[in-house]
Design goal:
By secondary structure, the chain is α+β, with helices and mostly antiparallel strands. A hairpin with a 4-residue loop joins β2 and β3.
């Protein structure tokens, strides 16, 4: 498994409570951000439940005897299938608790499963994962929103419907008619910096500014705190959460 330096920061922003959650489990190669929805209590419960369920599932898989692999393999497929199984289990866990004040709860997730020389990125909703390599910024995930689907279909996104529904999700963990989580595998190398972010972080902090803030150096924890502070200082109203993973080497 790749050696990493990771850090995480979160801020309530200008909201009454924080419905974001994050996960750092370097022993599993797992890093994730979740942004809950469904009201004050529901959002908090959903995001925490999603990440704890995913981490518990991956822990149970690692505990089982498996052949050596750059990234842990699922019995019926590669690491992509493993993380999708974990997200599906989280989906069932959230659905099972949807009643009363929690009846509308759900959560986004963006997750990184890191191995030797490669990583799997999984996403459902509009939390995102980015890669910065040699000062070049790359977005690794696709949003599951009405706006993103309209853009992909080449539709007009300036009309009143698009503006009204620009943040409406078409996929989230626990959402009844959710689309499936998407995964992709990519090579990683020493010097890479991966950033997992809720929309409260990446919306106020555009890519060029994010690259400049990361280039100021320091530990991954300092980088994460710098990004979150900048999002807040730029007027961010939403909950703000970021996880930064610096790849130091392999093995």
């Amino acid at each position: 498994m790749a050696r990493t330096d990771s850090g995480a920061a979160t801020h309530v922003g200008r909201r009454p409570n924080n419905e974001d959650s994050f996960c750092q489990r370097p022993e599993l190669g797992l890093f994730a951000v979740a942004d809950g929805l469904g009201g004050h209590e529901g959002g908090e419960v959903a995001s925490q439940l999603v990440l704890s369920t995913v981490a518990d599932f991956l822990t149970s898989q690692v505990a089982q005897p498996q052949p050596a692999s750059p990234v842990p393999d699922a019995p019926d497929g590669g690491p992509e299938r493993l993380i999708i199984q974990a997200v599906n289990q989280a989906h069932r866990a959230v659905r099972a608790q949807q009643s009363g004040r929690l009846s509308m709860m759900a959560s986004t997730i963006t997750a990184l499963l890191l191995g030797d020389g490669e990583a799997v990125v999984c996403n459902l909703g509009d939390s995102r994962t980015f890669l910065v390599r040699g000062g070049v910024f790359q977005r690794l995930t696709r949003d599951h929103t009405v706006l993103a689907e309209m853009e992909e279909a080449g539709l007009d996104t300036t009309n009143p419907f698009a503006v009204m529904h620009r943040n409406s999700l078409t996929g989230a963990v626990g959402m009844e008619a959710s689309v499936d989580a998407e995964c992709n595998r990519l090579p990683v190398q020493p010097g890479d910096v991966l950033v997992l972010a809720s929309d409260g972080l990446y919306e106020p902090v555009p890519p060029d500014l994010m690259v400049r803030l990361l280039a100021q150096g320091g530990s991954a924890q300092e980088m994460a705190e710098r990004l979150v502070a900048e999002a807040y200082n730029r007027g961010g109203t939403d909950n703000i959460t970021g996880v930064v993973v610096r790849v130091l080497g392999n093995g």
